[in-house]
Amino acid sequence: MPVVAIARRWALALLVAASCCCSLVLAAEHNYEAEQHFTLFSYSIQPPYIEENLQNRWWDFGGDAYMEVNNYIRLTPDKRSKNGHIWTKHPFTSNSWIVEFEFKIHGPSAGLHGDGLAFWYTKEKDSTGPVFGSKDKFDGLGVFFDTYANGRHHFSYPRINAMLGDGATEYDHDNDGVKNELGACEIEFRNNEQPTRARVRYVRETKTLTVQTNFYGGQGDADWVTCFVAENVRLPPTGYLGFSAHTGEVTDMHDLIQVKSQGISFSYKTGQTPPKDDYDAKKGNAQQQKVKGGSDKYGSSASSSSNRPPPPKTSSGGGVAHFFMVLFKLVLALVAIAAICFGVWKYAQRQEERSFKRF
Ligand SMILES: [Ca+2]
């Protein structure tokens, strides 16, 4: 067989290998084939909010929160030093989930106003405290819709950011949580005519947290703007769902309009199984080691970090960043394969020229 024909076969084989590599890179991103969503009615709330007995069977209201039936749940009125919250009565047990909610933060002040509203997924609930009206040193996730800059920053407000609490680390109140933030974005969600919609999505299988907002009211993907995607986020296996808000010296009305929660289930590829979640086991070991070490109750920042899940990778606008990272890997693989093909082709060409010279 002529050398050129052999080279062509090699080049073809390498191209096939390249396309296989591309597929493997994409498949490695997930080990599931499809996802299904199902509504979790007992973790959702919408007008009129209460039943005939003037209670809600699934949610508890507390602090200064009150409701106007059919309109809103007002977590705080436009008055100083108020805080209010609502929490689910039962912990949320779905491994992976999406919580969509509508809220309005508004008030007459065009100058200073605050402080903001928080979304919670935590192991404990109902405790009033300094973090947007809820307790500090929380264990789980807080996503903050912050309207007042406590510190001085290069970015503007309103701003969304999030923190993964380990039950010991304090929220960085004076610096608006910047020290421990998972991700953030600056979005104008105050005094909008229409309620703002937000979506918090957690996929335990990939340990990915996504926060999005929607100002357009539509349900299409194009209507949702990604605030951030954080990877390697390890949440407690169960957590109460909650919302809280507070005012201090500055004020605003913080209204929650409705909450819709969905569970996510995955169909796995043949031979694939869901990854095991060892959140409590790992955390338990870390706590035992800490007790043996004789550190103080909350530990130093160093011991505290040993007790925490691994620090998540942050990517503001990470949906796009994640896409480009996959694209970059693919391009790199293709460039490598193309270089090998080019080398083989050049070699074959030289061999062919030599064989002509001989004759
Ligand atoms: Ca703040």
From TrEMBL:
Keyword Signal: yes
GO cellular component: COPII-coated ER to Golgi transport vesicle; endoplasmic reticulum membrane; endoplasmic reticulum-Golgi intermediate compartment; Golgi membrane
Gene Ontology biological process: endoplasmic reticulum to Golgi vesicle-mediated transport
Domain called L-type lectin-like: residue spans: 37-264
Cleaved signal peptide residues: 1-27
Keyword field: Membrane, Signal, Transmembrane, Transmembrane helix
Positions with biased composition (Low complexity): 297-307
Pfam families: Lectin_leg-like
Residue span of region Disordered: 270-315
Protein localization: Membrane
InterPro entries reported for this sequence: ConA-like_dom_sf (IPR013320), Intracellular_Lectin-GPT (IPR051136), Lectin_leg (IPR005052)
Gene Ontology molecular-function annotations: D-mannose binding
Record membrane topology: Single-pass type I membrane protein
Gene3D superfamilies: 2.60.120.200
Transmembrane residue ranges: 323-348
PANTHER family reported in the protein's UniProt record: RE50040P, VESICULAR MANNOSE-BINDING LECTIN
Name listed for the protein in its UniProt record: L-type lectin-like domain-containing protein
